[in-house]
Amino acid sequence: MSFYFAIIGTKDNPIYECEFGTSKQGGDGIARWPEDQRPMNQFILHSALDIVEEVQWVQRELYLKTVDRFNNLMVSCFLSAGNIKFLLLHDTKIEDPIRQFFTDVHEVYIKTLMNPFYEVDMRITSMVFDARVRAAAKKYL
Amino acid sequence: MSNLNAPNSPFVPFSPNPSIQSGVPTATPPLSASKPAQLGSSNLRYASSRKSIYDRHLNRTQRSELSKASFAFLFGEMIQYAQKQVSGIQDLEKKLNIQGYAIGQRLLELLLYREGRSAKRETRVLGILQFIAQTLYRHLFGKPADGLEKSREHEDEYMLIDHDPVVNSHISVPKEMSQLNCAAFVAGIIEAVLDGSLFPCRVTAHSVFSEQFPSKTVFLIKFEESVLEREAVLQ
Amino acid sequence: MVILSILILNKAGGLIYQRDFNEGLNKLSSNDYLVLAGTFHGVHAITSRISPVPGSGGLEVLESDQFRVQCFQTLTGTKFLIFAEPHQPNIDVICRRVYELYADYVMKNPFYQIEMPIRCEQFDRQLVAYIKPKQ
């Protein structure tokens, strides 16, 4: 199982992204996307934004579950109060671990936001943030 | 660090590690080379306790209170600072609004986070206004707003009423600036919360004198057209 | 209890606030008030210098059969003069409270310039609200 994760700002601008593999069932946490698939991941994720914009007015939860599919890939979305979109591309249907992952990342994102030098929609360049996201991925996915 | 700068550095397009970004790949290296960004090897500076903002719990200060006097001094300084760089009253209110805006953006996320698993985003005008009048106001000032009214003349205008804004309690505006209401700062917070929840609008603070409440303030919320159109569709 | 009038002097002896709380006081011209403040400031300075006891803080109370003046000086040299009836009790409490209102509604007001005359609505309002019910 491989994952591609991105955080999209309020102006549909990516502010963070990373990829990782599963750490469950003896996985080593390294993403193994086919070589020609990797550039596609960004497209797939961004094309899901349209659907998120529709779903977000119907559903009031933060976790919107799986919003889009592309071949055998799924896009799950978590939408924060300030309309920051957390998108995860995955190939296996797992709901609860993804929710837990998103919840953790959401918390770390808010901590980033508490930094007075960080502004909404700015790229997240903190290494600690990166490490925390990867730790959450390792823990749940 | 040096191995990441090498020509065979992994392709991580928006990686927070600047040295990875500088090595934009010409040929993508094998994926197994992909490494998580290394901690502690950056130019990131830590506090002396070696703890960053990420080590603090978000709910730690949930119930803590702030001395009103220290806030009054800080807010006073903010006004004086803003006053130095503006030409008129409107300009000053704009500056205060911007100062509040940054706080609103953060509070919106934080307050919803603190609601835990039951947290719901607000999708309707009334819902978000209630959120502001209750949750946000209680968090900021320890009391709900004193009133929420819909304008009779304009479909797109709402009024949030505060009989005695905390931010204004130590402030007497001189006569020659009688148009000024320093609660523009709070208006900025409200505007950010509404904007952030995708209810784009303009929020302005107006003093409405009454015998009973001499510093009564009305926050006029004027939504953009798109908000009303969407509201009609959702209904 | 009757409070007749309250004056606030800055540290240079200039009058920065004056308000009457009772009818029937002699109306002085604004110039006379300034003279009164300046004179008191000078007398206060003299009393603190020529006091027979070393380390004296200067004039505190001035009594006549018509009224009594209580002077309260802050650490920064601002003086509060309270004119009251001759046998007014607890006047030091009133002084403290007026000082508190001054700290709250004058010093915390970003539009007030220090040592300048006090024109703060909130201060006026709070002072009246404090003194009036006691009259």
Automatic annotation (TrEMBL), chain A:
One of its GO terms (cellular component) is cytoplasm. GO terms for biological process: endoplasmic reticulum to Golgi vesicle-mediated transport. This is Sedlin. Pfam families: Sedlin_N. CDD domains: TRAPPC2_sedlin. InterPro entries: Longin-like_dom_sf, Sedlin. PANTHER family: TRAFFICKING PROTEIN PARTICLE COMPLEX SUBUNIT 2.
TrEMBL record, chain B:
The keyword Transport applies. Residues 7-19 have a biased composition (Low complexity). Keywords: Endoplasmic reticulum, ER-Golgi transport, Golgi apparatus, Transport. It is found in: Endoplasmic reticulum; Golgi apparatus, cis-Golgi network. It comes from Sphaerosporella brunnea. GO terms for cellular component: endoplasmic reticulum; TRAPPI protein complex; TRAPPII protein complex; TRAPPIII protein complex. This is Trafficking protein particle complex subunit. Residues 20-31 have a biased composition (Polar residues).
UniProtKB/TrEMBL annotation, chain C:
InterPro entries: Longin-like_dom_sf, TRAPPC. It holds the Pfam family Sybindin. It is found in: Endoplasmic reticulum; Golgi apparatus, cis-Golgi network; Golgi apparatus. Transmembrane segments: none annotated. Keywords: Endoplasmic reticulum, ER-Golgi transport, Golgi apparatus, Transport. Coiled coil: none annotated. One of its GO terms (biological process) is endoplasmic reticulum to Golgi vesicle-mediated transport. GO terms for cellular component: endoplasmic reticulum; Golgi apparatus; TRAPP complex. Belongs to the TRAPP small subunits family. TRAPPC4 subfamily. Part of the multisubunit transport protein particle (TRAPP) complex. PANTHER family: TRAFFICKING PROTEIN PARTICLE COMPLEX SUBUNIT, TRAFFICKING PROTEIN PARTICLE COMPLEX SUBUNIT 4. This is Trafficking protein particle complex subunit.
